[in-house]
From TrEMBL, chains A, B:
<feature type="domain" description="Bacterial bifunctional deaminase-reductase C-terminal">
    <location>
        <begin position="3"/>
        <end position="167"/>
    </location>
</feature>
<protein>
    <submittedName>
        <fullName>Dihydrofolate reductase</fullName>
    </submittedName>
</protein>
<dbReference type="InterPro" id="IPR002734">
    <property type="entry name" value="RibDG_C"/>
</dbReference>
<dbReference type="GO" id="GO:0009231">
    <property type="term" value="P:riboflavin biosynthetic process"/>
</dbReference>
<dbReference type="InterPro" id="IPR050765">
    <property type="entry name" value="Riboflavin_Biosynth_HTPR"/>
</dbReference>
<dbReference type="GO" id="GO:0008703">
    <property type="term" value="F:5-amino-6-(5-phosphoribosylamino)uracil reductase activity"/>
</dbReference>
<dbReference type="Pfam" id="PF01872">
    <property type="entry name" value="RibD_C"/>
</dbReference>
<dbReference type="InterPro" id="IPR024072">
    <property type="entry name" value="DHFR-like_dom_sf"/>
</dbReference>
């Protein structure tokens, strides 16, 4: 059964980036150990601690498609069409870049969050869909389309920045107790979204 | 050695209360189990799960003085001079209530965060000082007066409310990797503040 999950690395005070979009100390856990975890993009190498390695492997190996916002796509140059998790990316965007067919042949552009997640589900097959942008996560949570919220919680207070979560009109959103993995420079938390 | 720590129960998106100051689902963990933890205030009873009990006992037993803001003091009626943690309360306040001597004989009123923490240290002796208000925590963190940041992290997204942390002028505040205890309806995280 395909699961739709979001995964972000977040400061203890809720930020996934500084106001200038830089990640500051957030990604230190990706190179805080000596266990190599393969990435599909040769420009990205993970070397994590022994506790973080299985969860990172699982997030990577189980991922059948990634849903990202257009802003993240633009900021990363579309990961050169090779996202480190190794899966095709579905970009939520009103427009398709002119050179998309040549530069990002594996990447799909879909207008609207619900449609993008549906498309990602088709691509993922038996594997999971991972949402990689905060704004898309927020919209998908409000639409009830997220099965699991994953957070790699980093021991730092940013004070200000780009938040993982945002206000929504639907009242409090209840989660189940999480799976907890204590890694180096990140505590990994996987919260199933409560249903019914 | 007296340690100055803050402890708050916080939603995954960083809030310690709703916009109307109510705690919503946050305090469910205080009654989510069948292990009774004594409180110094007979109106407050804790019944927590087996994993949460030792950390709650430790927070309570090691607490030699509590520092609270005036707003929290007013909201709780000054805990009737008997804070559940059993320790005297030092209230940061510009003014002293007229009936303080009769209604709150154990409670101390001090003008200013640094002075209040210093006074609480004297009262605590060998035991710890616990900061129980978010605004006081924020000011104490900015002043470098906090040794440990404790969070009972609850699996709920509020969307809006009263935040635990706030912006500060001193850049990112780095914490050490936390002690982690996985309780029912709360993951307890104790972060030493990084020094130097």
């Amino acid at each position: 059964m395909t699961k739709v999950q979001s995964h972000m690395t977040m400061s203890l005070d809720g930020f996934i980036a500084q106001p200038d979009d830089q990640v500051g100390e957030l990604f230190e856990w990706y190179e805080a150990g000596d266990v190599a975890v393969p990435s599909a993009n040769e420009r990205v190498e993970f070397r994590v601690d022994a506790a973080s390695a299985p969860i990172l492997k699982e997030l990577t190996e189980h991922c059948g498609a990634i849903v990202a916002g257009r802003r993240l796509f633009d900021m990363t140059g579309g990961w050169d069409d090779r996202h480190p998790a190794g899966a095709p990316v579905v970009v939520v965007s009103h427009t398709v870049p002119e050179d998309a067919a040549e530069r990002w042949p594996r990447t799909v552009f879909v207008d609207g969050v619900a449609a993008a997640i549906e498309r990602a589900r088709q691509i993922a097959g038996e594997r999971d869909v991972t949402i990689a942008s905060a704004t898309i996560t927020q919209q998908a949570l409000a639409l009830g389309l997220v099965d699991e919220v994953c957070v790699s919680l980093v021991p730092v207070l940013f004070g200000e920045g780009v938040p993982y979560f945002a206000a929504f009109d639907t009242g409090h959103l209840l989660l189940e107790d999480p799976e907890v993995v204590q890694g180096k420079r990140a505590v990994h938390l996987r919260y199933p979204v409560r249903r019914g």
